Queue: 2 jobs
Job 1
Amino acid sequence: MDSIRIRGGRPLAGEIPISGAKNAALPLMAAALLCQGPLILENVPRLADIRTMASLLAQHGLNVERQGPEGRRLVLGGRITSTEAPYDIVRKMRASVLVLGPLLARTGEARVSLPGGCAIGTRPVDIHLKGLQELGAEVRLEQGYIHARVAGRLRGAQIVLPFASVGATENLLMAATLAEGRTEIANAAREPEIGDLATCLNRMGARIEGIGTDRLVIEGVRELSGARHAIIPDRIEAGTYACAAAITGGEVRLRGARLEHIAALARALGDAGVEVMEEAEGILVRRAGKLKGVDVMTEPYPGFPTDMQAQFMALMSVAEGAAMVTETIFENRFMHVPELNRMGARINVHRASAIVRGVKQLCGAPVMATDLRASVSLVLAGLAAKGETIVHRVYHLDRGYEVLEQKLAACGADIERISGSA
Ligand code: UD1
């Protein structure tokens, strides 16, 4: 297994190109199941999770072809030959459950392995299933699988989500595009990735209104066709590198990033003493003065993203004063805390909140994490720490960050991948 070695203490300076958004690409790929194709997606990031979704779609019978000079174009299409999403693929990536809505809407049937628990909590799919039942599906759970069926087409319905779940909104939105009649999804999640999905679905012939709001109205159509769509930039990747610039006291241009997508983070960074400026081609992030402790609480978009919580906590661990970081989305998302503390941070967790008392300097250490964002928070800590940090279990990073060490090294970080170490 690879690891990453960092020798900390160098301020980052330079430019980082922001890749296409992983969390937009995954549902967009699943949307290929709604039509014969071809669905042509541009700006697709090169990540392990994208390969996992590609192999799942291939197992459903679709052709998935990478094209273009860097393989950033995906061409998807073909006939569905299997409606089963097997445990072996779903267990690798929870987002596999996004094939459920499209398979059911298109073929009238889907058998998808239950995703089960994961490092950051139990993460049930009850909201997805209840919504599909409201659209007329019969849903049974048997032998670890979700079995959903409908005779004929799904039927439009009024759905009120009990919580603005990102995945449930995406699954129900995709399913409703092919339902008979009109569907309304109230309390829908508003993440930019959902807007990107809805925009692409409309290009495929869907009739969705209310994009970007918490009330999506979908007029069902009989069929969708192929389309071409460029994926939005990854706001979490951009936010992560913004924190990297901030924690090292550097200056970095995030090429392609959109400030409107990271507004809550930009406000928190501003309060902490970090300059975040919109430019023609992206965002400039700079810190010259001291970092100050700022309280944040994670919330559904447009609130502060849970996917930035660990990185922001790493930043707060070297700020002046204290910061309270409260996690409201996932119940078990402080796995980075003990590792950050091993690097000299002073963080105490009490239920859903962590009190971070800033220290002057972190110290390098061997560390490892159990999920994607926790792992990258340790990389950020390593960039600011004195001495050497080795981050183990790099496969978590490879799920969501494209050539992370190259992007950071190009801005002057002393960072390298060591292949094959335990
Ligand atoms: C997506 C993102 C993930 C991000 C999360 C929250 C993708 C591929 N992943 O995950 O990176 O951290 O949004 O912004 O886009 N819940 C239920 N029942 C359900 C569904 C969800 O109780 O049926 C709960 C979950 O356990 C969790 C919360 O709702 O506590 C948020 O989950 P959700 O918004 O669905 O996140 P994902 O779509 O899984």
Job 2
Amino acid sequence: MELTRRSFTAMTGGAALTLALAPGAAQAAAAAEPAAADGAPHTVAFDKYSMVIDGRRVVLWSGEIHPYRLPSPSLWRDVLQKLRANGYNAISIYVAWNYHSSAPGTYDFTGVRDLGLFLRMAAEAGLYVILRPGPYINAEVDGGGFPGWLTTTAGTARTADPTYLGHVDEWLTAVDAIARGHLYTNGQGTVVLYQLENEYAAHISDASGRDYLAHLYAKVRADGIDVPLFHNDKGRNGYWVPGSFPTGDESGRYLYAFDGYPSPSGNPPDWGYFGSGGAKGGSTASPQTPGFVAEFGGGWFDPWGGAEFGGKGYEESRRTRDAAYERRFYLTNLANGIKIHNVYMTFGGTSWGWLPAPVVYTSYDYGAAIDEARNATSKLTPMHQLGELVQSVPDFAMLDRAQDVAASDPRVRVYHLANPETGAHFYVLRNDTTAAVDCTLPLATPAGEFTAPVTVGARDATLLATGIRLGRRTLLHTTAQPMLQLTVGRQDIAVLTGRTGYPVEAAIACAEKPRVTVLDGDATTAYENGALTVRAGLSGLTRVLIEGGGSQTPLLLLLADDEASSRLWRHSTPSGPVLVRGPALSRTASLHGATIRLTGDTIEDCEVEIWAPRGIRQAAWNDRHLPLRSTRSGSLISRTDLPGVPQVPLPELTGWRHAPENPESAADFDDSDWTQATRTTSHSTTPVPAGQPVLFADDYGFHYGDVWYRGRFDDATAANTVSLSYSAGTQGLLMAWLDGEPLGTHRLPVPAKAQDTQGTWTATAAFAVPEALRTAAPHTLSVLVRRMAHEEDGGARDSHKAARGLTAAVVPGAPVTWRIKGATGTEDRVRGPLNAGGLYGERTGWHLPGFDDHAWASGSAPGRRQGVSWQRTTFALRVDEQVDASIGLHLDDDASRAYRVQIFLNGWNLGQYINDVGPQHTFVLPNGLLRTRGRNTLALAVLSDGTTEAGPAEVSLKLLGSAAGGVRVDPVSSPGL
Ligand code: GAL
């Protein structure tokens, strides 16, 4: 049946959507064209099955990536190209309000914060964008994305409180002004969906919640955002479905989405066609909008402190959510009708500077498909296979649940779906047991029922299809998962995939006996009753050329095991698709006369094979001529192998100089320009202690990083102890000095799970005052608080407003007056508000390139001393321009030593190492910040409690990955002194 305008309107009931579907859109055999910004107007709509973009059904196969977790714009392009090449057609991004705003009214979208540049690169890479600017995002960032200054404002955040909404509107005005210039609808970009808020469950049933969402909706529309809007419901509660709050816009431009982070050790949940439990578990939450998971676990974040504290390390996240997990869980999602599928995270990146929320350390690798060092992992392979499938098999975008069928072995769960227009059938087979299962399954095929023998791996899943087009021919059945079908030049190409060693059978309709040639690998074929059956054991790449048999156009059938399939790269050109095989990555392909120009990466030596439109006879690889010969597969292949990546030698880090710091601890330090702590009221959720001034750092404009206090009192005769209460986030600490003498250090405990359920991380440190200092003279108490991030505010309880810094101080018998010093976040416009805190060295530029350290002592040992010391060195790199080397800084030491290190590369704060907590030892140094062909400045700020020697004993550069190729990397501005 052709989908007509009338039948479509009847289906959706939505007047605004009648323009949406072009006739035949669901049947179109050609692969969907990638997203592009072409300056022309476009339509973005949806119905209950899928997004409908320019009248074509599109399944969005999306990966989450956070621009703010990769502070080097050139590398955005690298990751975006890697996603596109690996079958993703969309990305989803949060925009973190705090990253762009150091103060009310100040919004910065330049340099590493250039959101417009990021969105342009996404469009250039051919990716649709799901934009998620909050205002609240969670995302394991400080305050869940709320700027530090918001903690000092009146009104409850995440409600319809007018003061809060005033700030929100300012943010949305700023971010929407950028977003508006990158909408797909106006042809200026590829943004097709926009999220309001995130996991907003707190006020679902009260007016404040409804008014808040209604306000956000109206504001975003007033700002000119005309793509569909949605909210991300925490775990399919059926919250904020269409109609649950007023939009003043009932034309169906709002859809329902939810997220899911199920345990990988359990069985995948059903939440759509096969779900139960009404709105919560079933398909009824929002029957008129397509299944949409705005976030689905692609790994998991890791807490400070390693295994004994619940942390497992990112390799463990990657192991438990491996390729088989992806197939098992994501295929279940697809079986349940999900047509907008976003995996959180797909590239996690780095929570650099003071970005990490208390729950995480610097690395946000997440165990994602692309690791923090930008390396492809084996998790990309299933994503690549499924991404190409949903894009090149259009039948997939419109599926209904079909009649239940059972496999011969009940250990295999079967989901059966069918396209009501084309008659194609899809089967997801899932095995939740720990042994592979061989079974049979009755398939509905265009040639009648067929009993297919199938192997489903242990705790794995696969997808089978019948009745789909493979170019001009029809696939009757297959026991392997279809990956790709396309027409290149004079031939059709189809790819079926599976695990190495699995038997494959594929039957293709042929009106008469075709000519069949097995070009590569072992396969047998038989023709009977209008069907050509191909059988093979999956191993590498098996090629079967099918000619004639009722079609003028040859079909090249490629049976690819996982490894072989991961080396197949599809590109679109104005003259039609291109398929490249061989290299570790094929980034781009463009046609210039008879030449195809390819860019990409190699790791090992490899051949390059190209299927290109007619007339292409020559190729260039990364701008170098690539001699070719033609093959019987209808392709062109390199005459010699492309070279892999050469060795990347890295220098040792030597020439260290070091110096002690913390002059603030000395009795005679001049603090006359520090802020006097005289406030008596605060908007913090932390109560101000009776009779004491407000000491919370935020109230004095110091929102991130370390903060110093100096207190004066006149008489210490009664002061046998000093009690200092503070609130700092997990891993916070406080150290104190009286008249320059260290009183000691207090550390908040590593978060064993049961502790501090309030999440405020407060403690009172009581220090004994040495007898000799208990005099009736004036005294100075110096206190350094390493304050970690503000809490997130997942429960909409204003928990980001829990104080940070000192909260109360008691010196018996003596009132104390305080001055306070920290960083305002406006000091360094280039590196932004979250880069540096209030250490003396940070305030005076010790972390910056160009700081003159020649008078410092040589060597690196800060010794045993309470306080801060710094060490600095420079190093030069000479990485070949054609090589993308991903380099990290590795720190190691005896784990009993009590100290921590902030790492500054060319002035950029790339993370915090806590030697006796862990687990992170290696810190990614992103190229662009890192000068791979030039000199770099490394500065380490070491904070130690003086109970042990401080380190770090070992500091070295480590190669985390390398490839010949890469993208051009522009240096990121790194101003010095
Ligand atoms: C989700 C949330 C994300 C992130 C994720 C865990 O529930 O929406 O922002 O916090 O959990 O990584």
